[in-house]
Each structure stands twice: as C-alpha cells, then as structure tokens.
Amino acid sequence: FTGKFYCYVPGIYFFSLNVHTWNQKETYLHIMKNEEEVVILFAQVGDRSIMQSQSLMLELREQDQVWVRLYKGERENAIFSEELDT
C-alpha cells in the first residue's frame, strides 16, 4: 500500500522494472534502497514511445526498503500519477 518493498527476511533479492515512455517526454527514475539511489533509468525525449526495462539484484537486510522515485527534470515526464495512486 505504500509503494515500497519492505524486507523482512535478509537475503539477495531480484527486482525488475518495466516502463513505457511516451512520445516527446523524458523518463527519469531512480531505484532506491532506503534513501540511496542504486540505479537510474533514463530515456531521452524522442519521436516515438518505447519500452524501457531495468533489472538488478540487491543484498538486503531486515528493515531495508526498495522503491522507485520519479525524478522531476527540466521537461514533462513520461510517467505520471495522481495523489490517490501509490
């Protein structure tokens, strides 16, 4: 419900992120581990929409959190949400 993955069992976890980007808009996301950026997913503005994906493995301890942060750049983002979305 929070939009974050909470680790309760320490170990190595696999995460995969798939994003559809829209025409003439940029995509700029950070995959976060707690408050640290571990991966940046970026797509420049183009004439067509594309699919982007990023996969990674992270070693997590109990109480670690993994989440996706939308970075607000200079242009309009290809990804949007409303206040009610998680």
TrEMBL record:
The cross-references to InterPro entries, in alphabetical order and at most eight, read:
C1q_dom, Cerebellin_Synaptic_Org, Tumour_necrosis_fac-like_dom
Origin organism lineage: Eukaryota, Metazoa, Chordata, Craniata, Vertebrata
Its source organism is Macaca mulatta
SUPFAM superfamilies assigned to the protein according to its UniProt record, in alphabetical order: TNF-like
Q: What is this protein called?
A: Complement C1q tumor necrosis factor-related protein 1 isoform 1
Enumerate the Pfam families for this protein: C1q
| Source superkingdom | Eukaryota
Could you say which residues form the signal peptide? none
Q: Where is the C1q domain?
A: 1-86
Where is it localised? Secreted
Query: Chief subcellular site?
Result: secreted
Q: Provide one Gene Ontology cellular component.
A: extracellular region
Q: Which UniProt keywords apply?
A: Secreted, Signal
Asked if Signal is a keyword of the record, the answer is yes
